[in-house]
Please model this.
Amino acid sequence: MSVNPELQGRVFPPVAPYLVGREKVREFSRAVFATNPINHDPEAARRAGYADVVAPPTFAVVVQEATLAQLLAEPDAGIDFSRVVHGDQRFSFSRPIVAGDELTATLTVASVKSLGGHSMVTAESRVVDAAGAHVVTATSTLVVRGDE
Amino acid sequence: MSIESTTPRLDDLVVGAVVAEAGFPLTRDSLVRYAGASGDFNPIHYRDDVAVSVGLPGVLAHGMLTMGLAVQPVVDWAGDPGRIVDYQVRFTRPVLVDPAAGAVVTVVAKVGAIDADAGIARIDLTVSFNEVTVLGKAQVRVRLADSPLSDA
Model:
């Protein structure tokens, strides 16, 4: 089974909104060795101009994850999860994620390419806040190994 | 470190200069903690038998854990996680985490480019384990000027 080239350009329905909790931000911060007070202390975050604690940059992957699950579960995608390797990752921010944000992510398959028997799927998940304003776009390139 | 950090000034930066360096000792506990915090429960990150069964030499750190910690020296240098406007990496080699000895991931952050008009510095990361790099094209774009959220 190989990756369906017709996936390219497909836009998935938005996933259910993700409410960013303060304790989740702190928990994630500890897990990635983030020690900046703005990640942990609401007062420090307010002094820096934020409404609440600020999530580390890679926290966006937690919001993105549900969209990648959608892609992998797509019946005609032809993506065998056991053959998937994470190739590249990028986060492009309009503003940082802050506790209290209600975020909604929508995945678009930017490209499907074949390379030496492998497929490379680039998925862009656009994340907006409750007002619909862009927060971050999380882009993953998944390498799907071909049959050995 | 004081709570109110001073933001580096773009004018003071020199391309190629090291702005931050750090070492991160990882243990299996670190991987379990990241699994819980991120929701990534792929067992190759905590079970040797599963890792070996899929042809790996042993349990590996999550690539996203390596990416997540590697940016932290830049966050501390910039003084505010909200100054990171773009961050990208390529996952090139795994970080094997020994059950007893763990693994140490080292990060060196250098100025890669300066965009004075945009007020943004590109910081390039060299992220290594056992003296070899594990991330490729690891670049962080940091807004150092004209941030509406700061009085710097």
